[in-house]
Specification:
globular, 2 domains, 191 residues, 79% helix, mainly alpha, single chain, Rna Polymerase Sigma Factor, Chain: A, Arc Repressor Mutant, subunit A
């Protein structure tokens, strides 16, 4: 039995629509892959976990892409992607807390130390700042990662965190002030 012509045209239109959605998602993926990976890496601190989180982020985004486009009203979708990555990272930490893992003893060769005192000092400063960032409350740490590692503006951060622009500005200000206090503590303690 032959299929009615109206059904054939509807099916080809939906295919074209799916192809168009796939093309638009591929464009979104190319545009924001680096940002999502960077966010995940700064959040979890491990290359492999960051890759997994990035993959999971885009898989989940693909499932809900059409709805996100409709609801975005033309606004950029980067905050939406970062929000997905944020939620997946939180789930990862929650799952790991429930199931502690033993670490493998890594025996990778240590890179040769740089000979200049300035580079060593800079590396120490960076290590102290990164350690300070780990000590911040989750919301402050997230805001700083989005602002300085990803270069997101306050409005994008606000959307990603589900806050108002004003609350986000205050959050970032407090995070910077607290980080400065954390990083400055060892300097004050030294003679």
């Amino acid at each position: 039995m032959a299929e009615p012509e109206s059904r054939k045209s509807t099916r080809s239109e939906s295919r074209k629509s799916k192809q168009q959605l796939d093309a638009e998602f591929a464009e979104l993926y190319r545009a924001h892959l680096r940002d999502v990976y960077s966010y995940a890496y700064y959040r979890v601190g491990d290359h492999h976990d960051a890759e997994d989180l990035t993959e999971q982020t885009f898989l989940q985004a693909y499932r809900h892409f059409e709805r996100a486009q409709r609801e975005s009203d033309g606004r950029p979708l980067r905050p939406w992607l970062i929000r997905i990555a944020h939620n997946l990272a939180a789930n990862l930490y929650r799952d790991r807390a429930r199931r502690p893992q033993s670490t493998l003893d890594e025996r990778s060769p240590v890179a040769a130390a740089h000979s200049t005192e300035e580079l060593v000092s800079g590396r120490d400063d960076l290590a102290r700042v990164l350690e300070g960032v780990k000590q911040l409350p989750d919301d402050r740490r997230e805001a700083l990662i989005m602002r300085f590692a990803l270069g997101m503006d306050n409005r994008e951060i606000a959307r990603a965190l589900g806050r108002t622009d004003g609350a986000t500005k205050v959050l970032i200000h407090r995070a910077i002030r607290q980080l400065d206090e954390i990083v400055s503590e060892p300097e004050r303690a030294e003679p």
